[in-house]
Amino acid sequence: MNALETALRENRAYLCLSCGKCTAVCPVARKDAGFSPRRLVERAVNDDPSTWLGGDEVWKCLTCLRCSALCPGDVHFSEFARDVRALARESGNAGACTHGDAIFAWMRLMQEPGLRQNRLDWLTDDLQVSADGDTLYFVGCLPHYDVMFRAQGFEGVAIAQSTVRLLNHMGIAPRVLADERCCGHDLLWAGDAEGFRKLASLNAALFAQAGIRRIVTSCAECYRTLKLDYPEACGLKVEVLHISQVLAQALADGKIAFRKGALPVAFHDPCRLGRHGGEYDAPRAVLQAAAELREMEHARERALCCGTSVWTQCGQVAKALQDERIGEALVAGAEAMVTACPKCQIHFTCAMSGPTSASGPRVAVRDLVCVLADALADI
């Protein structure tokens, strides 16, 4: 059985009924009439791979799982797109990275076992971290993204600082590891499974050496990757939590409190926390304690994606999807759109920073932990 046949079978693609439900809800298909999840499957089944593996069709899917949620055949379209990308890479089609391959370059650099990093300069004297605790705050690529996107309003380092501050407020001094690697999410979903496994193995060994039993992350993609992909890739057997889940439990237990402001906000569900991770309630529970929550037209399971996946296909379709989502926040009467995924904040702030958006409607885009850290109250 060749690799394409395996991808078709393992992801149930042969059970596609061509009913069109995936096309009806696919964010990309609504903006690009030439794309459809089922059409990609049809081409994989019927056409010579040389006629489509070299094109950009395999990179258009946002892997947001919106289609799979409604598929009567339970076809795993997003995972199929991921596996097909591995075949595309083998044929020389690695997709066009929006930022000149800089982001993938540091992921490849981190695969070097002997690499030593200086990635903890964001820690300030008021933040308490542990030298031997068993709860890890997995920072991910926040310090690197901060350098690249700070000028457009990204809160990279502030997200990391706010997360530690919130954990400290609950009496938790987390471990932070100087030699932590990127979780590898983008490599995996861009078809570089080997590179992903290298990063996963290095991180897993680091966790084991440090005696980590619980991992907390403030990034939806890190959450999905560590919780769902690491157990299969490297046998990781530790508890993985998104910071919103830790905060929601602490709020329910009376271990943390927030000053409720009058600012109306809308919560944008990240695909990796929502449809991939199944978590919709925790971020809303804590956000409602700190602000006036307004729901957008598409929320929870029906939430729209931020428009770009693994730093590719950042063009007119992505911009249209981002404008649509920003418009939903404005219609809901929100003055800020809050998300729990750093990438979502990067993409939405980018959408409003270009020359075509300079005079258009705007809404502040904030990360959940930054909003909550600003609203901390004494118990």
In terms of topology, how is this protein built?
Layout: H1 3-10, H2 21-25, H3 27-31, H4 37-46, H5 57-60, H6 77-90, H7 102-109, E1 135-138, H8 142-149, H9 156-169, H10 185-189, H11 193-210, E2 214-217, H12 220-234, E3 239-242, H13 243-252, E4 257-258, E5 264-268, H14 281-288, E6 292-294, H15 316-331, E7 336-339, H16 342-351, E8 364-367, H17 368-374, E9 376-377
Parallel strand pairs: 1-2, 2-3, 5-6, 5-7, 7-8
Antiparallel strand pairs: 4-9
Helix pairs in contact: 1-6, 8-9, 9-17, 13-14
Structural account:
- The chain folds into 3 domains: 3-90, Alpha-helical ferredoxin (Fumarate Reductase Iron-sulfur Protein, Chain B, domain 2); 102-248, Rossmann fold (3-Layer(aba) Sandwich); 256-377, Rossmann fold.
- Helices cover 44% and strands 8% of the residues.
- It contains 17 helices and 9 strands.
- A 4-stranded parallel β-sheet has the order 6-5-7-8, sandwiched between helices.
- The chain is globular, with a radius of gyration of 20 Å.
